[in-house]
Amino acid sequence: MTEEREIIHSSFWANLFKPSAQKLDNEAILGAYPPFLELSRKYLTLLSHIIHNRQYIAGEHIFAQGDPGIGLYIIRNGEIEITYADKGGQILRIASFSKGDFFGELALVDGGKRNASALAKTDVKLSVIFKPDLDNFIERYPKKGIKILQGITLIVTTRLRQLDEDFLNH
């Protein structure tokens, strides 16, 4: 039997980039997130064609800890929870995300294994950009690809700096 503990306040998992406007079209969604902020409408339109829409029911896993990292997820509706199973079998709830939040961006860079699980807390509608699709886009448009990767780097470095600050202030 696993024991569940709640730890929601990890800066690394905090969504520091949630846009203020909750628009529904794919171009507007992309244009609101750091990896895509510097792209023109032309490239946002091209990227919007590689977005896949997915739905999950409450209680369904979106991905599990240890799964291959295959994409970036943007929440269009609903709530998800990020959990981590430690070596002792405890399940730690480390983040909760809702409409407008995103998660899984590291998969777009390294495609490594997921270090946590994502579970639908409610019925969820997600927009997903899969790594192979983004890799093809970057291959076709390398200068724009650099902008996207710089945006992902901004997310990671901002989260790490916030984590450092939290650690040093506690």
Structure description:
This protein has a five-stranded mixed beta sheet, with no helix packed on it. 30% of the residues lie in helices and 28% in strands. Residues 7-24 have low confidence and may be disordered. The chain has a single domain, classed as Jelly Rolls (Sandwich), CATH 2.60.120.10. Helix 3 (131-140) crosses helix 4. It has four helices and nine strands. It has 170 residues and is an alpha+beta fold.
- CATH T-level topology: Jelly Rolls
In total, the number of domains comes to 1
Give the averaged pLDDT, no decimals. Answer: 84
Structural class: alpha+beta
Beta-strand content estimate: 25-35%
State the major sheet.
5 strands, mixed
Low-confidence stretches: 7-24
Give the C-level CATH assignment: Mainly Beta
Brief descriptors of the model:
30% helix, Jelly Rolls, alpha+beta, five-stranded mixed beta sheet, 170 residues, globular
Brief rundown of the structure:
With 170 residues, this protein is of the alpha+beta class. It is 30% helix and 28% strand.
Chart the SSEs and their pairings.
Elements: E1 4-6, H1 26-31, H2 41-48, E2 51-56, E3 61-63, E4 71-77, E5 79-85, E6 91-98, E7 102-103, E8 117-120, E9 124-130, H3 131-140, H4 142-168
Parallel strand pairs: 1-6
Antiparallel strand pairs: 2-9, 3-8, 4-7, 4-9, 5-6, 5-8
